[in-house]
Design goal:
28 helices; 3-stranded mixed beta sheet; Rossmann fold; Helicase, Ruva Protein, domain 3; 5 domains; alpha/beta; 5-stranded parallel beta sheet; single chain; Zinc Finger, Delta Prime, domain 3
Length: 602
Amino acid sequence: MAYQALYRKWRPRTFDSVICQEAITDTLKNAIKRGKVSHAFLFAGPRGTGKTSCAKIFAKALNCTNLQDGEPCNECANCLAADQGSMPDIMEIDAASNNGVDEIREIRDKVKYAPTEGKYKVYIIDEVHMLSMGAFNALLKTLEEPPEHVVFILATTELQKVPATIISRTQRYNFKRISKADLEKRMKYILDQENIKYEDKALAVIAQVADGGMRDALSILDQLLSYEKESVNYDDALQITGFADRENIEKILLALLNQDAGQALALTQNELDQGASSKNILDELIDLATKSLMIIKTGEDKQETFLTADFITQIKDIPTDTYYRLIDLANKALNDLRYTNQQQIPLEVFLIVASSPVKEQNNESLAQPVVSAQPASTNTDLQAELAALKKQVVDLTQKMSELANKPSLSTNQVFHLDTAVPKVASKPAIKPLEKQTKKPVRKVKKTTAENRKQVYHVLENATRKDLETIKNVWPDLQSVLAVSEKAVLDVLEPVAASPDQVVMKCKYTLWFENASADNDLLGRLTDYIEKFAKHSYEIVLVPDGDWLAVRKEFVESHKDELLAKKKQQIEIQTEKSDEPKVDPEVINKAKDLFGDVVNVKD
């Protein structure tokens, strides 16, 4: 018969044989005894803690014909078939290799069929977090409301990758890591049953390397038995696992506590030469330092825990802060190992720093250049300026609320924002390097009587071609202006344009005041329009609420003049053509000026 690995040969067959998961196994047994079996379960936890084993035992118990207090009998035909993997009603699926939508749809189509030999059809989906999102979505409805004869058991080592919609449809059981004591106890039981001799120190090394996983522990034990069939020796365990001799680790710790860097480096190099890894040495030092700290704090004398003679006597007078510092430095060195290929360097740096006196390190830190603090007067000035800025924000908020409650301003009423907000006096520079010359600003007319004359002038000479030119370059302006300046473009809209000027209406009165006050922005806007349109236009701003009134006044006051001008243009065009034709541009212009009241006749 072919050799079978220990973790397969000694896989638990009953709930009672699952170690360190009593709360979960008792719950599952009681659910079976009381007939309160849910339709879906989710087993989550680290590798090798019994998730798949519990799933197989639970599936076997659900179909057992001779239950023994919630446990499978392991004697009936269904139990024997389940142990051999030939039970047709228990299906194990590896989601790592069957993670597509088609596989889940196949399961969804088959769940409606009744079980053939047992009471339940049980689907065990291992590593369920490997399913694709489409597969999860395909499983949702079936998982929520499966047929009465179907039970789903999902197992995963990475619960955070399972969608919340899946977790909410299952009963979740969190498997915990197995303690070192339980790992050693289980390995001793197996070795006794196999009639193999062992050393307790060797099993302790295996338990530490396994990191809470029973399967890992049995795999390492299997490897040791392949190396030496007759027994499990401590030296072999060190050589196979890469761990350092515990006695030498105690000597390294004592050298660090006594600030003997040379001795610590020599002992560590010896262990590295024997095959120990930097990670394992650091792990063992952290474990040993923690145990030493616990013994010192609790006052217990457990000399049998250590291999070095009088170890407790040598460490009891060491300050506890030294242990805290050593453990912290070792953890940092472990983290550094993840980012380098030269694993020995972080370990050696840790040994040197940990064995250095604390006062020496403090002196080195004091020798580092320190940025001088600013004078107290500077802090006072900053606080005063900050208070003034806060006051400015409060005043501006109040003024905006007042504007929101008032009706829109008429053409003869303009609110000057710059007079309402107190200005903060900026601190003059001590020695200006050079005198800055201010760029001449372009003054923008507001909606006063003078501004209306300028708007009238634009309307008198307005053309659709110039307006289309401005609108065509508008997207280009969005691409060159800064993010803060684009907000102004969002509230500005060109409404009329002549060959040398453009009227832009502003949606909000407050924004109109801000844009009018920002001469630099309008200057840049004018320059960009000239750049893209290949023609210079002067900007005339008008509030949105005032634009209709200004245009209406212009139409009423210039109605006769505009009609005569358009009539003259029509007569000129008629003379130039054999057939009387009306220019569509003239009609559109008339409609823009006089509205829908224009009636065009041939």
